[in-house]
Amino acid sequence: MAADWQSQIRANPLAPKIQVDALHKGFGALPVIGGVSFAIGDGEFVAIVGPSGCGKSTLMNTIAGFEKPDSGEVRIDGAPMAGPSPRGIVISQHGSVFPWLTVQQNLMFGLNGARHETDPSERAALADHYAAMVGLKGFEAHYPHELSGGMLKRVELARAFIVKPEILYLDEPFSALDALMNLRMRNELMRILEEERHTVLLITHDVDEAIYMADRILVLSPRPTTIQASFEVNLPHPRRLASPEAQDLRDALLKELGL
Q: What is the DSSP code string of 138-207?
């Protein structure tokens, strides 16, 4: 079962990057978040699963600074979260690629005003590097309407990674993709995370997706949501979801979710 965040920090050898303490959030008379506390270590990949309508996305938006909590606090590196920050990037299921810009221009957009990349040729070279990193070499001059759904999601990943965020907030980022492309994008994300260090918080309804990628999985209760259970995922990458260990974890997660 989930422990309080102080106990999680003591048990986690990684320094806490994100600290959520007694978070409450509601909309009018509807309570959504009912007192959530947990910590995420620097460089840790944590997935959050829960029943439909329990408040997963509201929790993500509050942690990322887009919603103000009614009470409680979110701290990043020990400092209170006052609002959205360029230190964290959100990738959601809805997509955020600009249709009037090419792949290269979409990637360069995030670098506008970046002090370390002021030269246009340097920004273009960096954009091309990240396009190649996500498998889009040769498509730099293409517009979004010329790309498949999976390729558009690759553009989003590249645009997030190019600004080198400390934290990736992933809100069911691959849920709109077909099963095969979903698996490919999971593999793509894990490959990039092997090359670059980021702290990741994933919201997902897919238990298998959480097992496949996360270091730790938190299970939310029905609304008003709290942390119902916490599971360490001590399986080496690349993970085989058909392994007995993964199946046992899947069964335990589904039991917590009432299935």
A: T-TT--GGGS-HHHHHHHHHHHHHHT--SEEEEESTTTTS-HHHHHHHHHHHHHHHHHS--EEEEE-S-H
Residues 98 and 91: their CA atoms lie apart, in Å, by: 14
pTM: 0.84
**Quick one: which of 197, 184, 196 has its CA closest to 154?**
184
Residue 183 to residue 250: CA distance in whole angstroms: 17
Give bridge partners of residue 19 from the DSSP assignment.
Answer: 39, 75
Dump pLDDT digits (tens) for 214-246. 999 999 999 999 999 999 999 998 899 999 999
Architecture in CATH of 5-87+166-256: 3-Layer(aba) Sandwich (3.40)
Domain boundaries defined on the chain: 5-87+166-256, 98-164
What is the model's pLDDT at position 15? 67
Record the tokens describing residue 207, joined without a space: 């238990």
Write down the pLDDT at residue 1: 36
Cα angle 225, 88, 166; round to 5: 115
Distances (CA, A) of 204 to 65, 96, 168, 190, 214: 19, 18, 14, 16, 11
Q: If pLDDT is split at 50, 70 and 90, which confidence band does 259 have?
A: confident
Distances (CA, A) of 54 to 31, 34, 144, 257: 10, 10, 33, 11
Element (H, E) at 251: helix 244-256
Which has more confidence, 208 or 150? Answer: 208
Residue 108 has pLDDT above 80, yes or no: yes
**Are the C-beta atoms of 147 and 140 separated by less than 8 Å?**
no
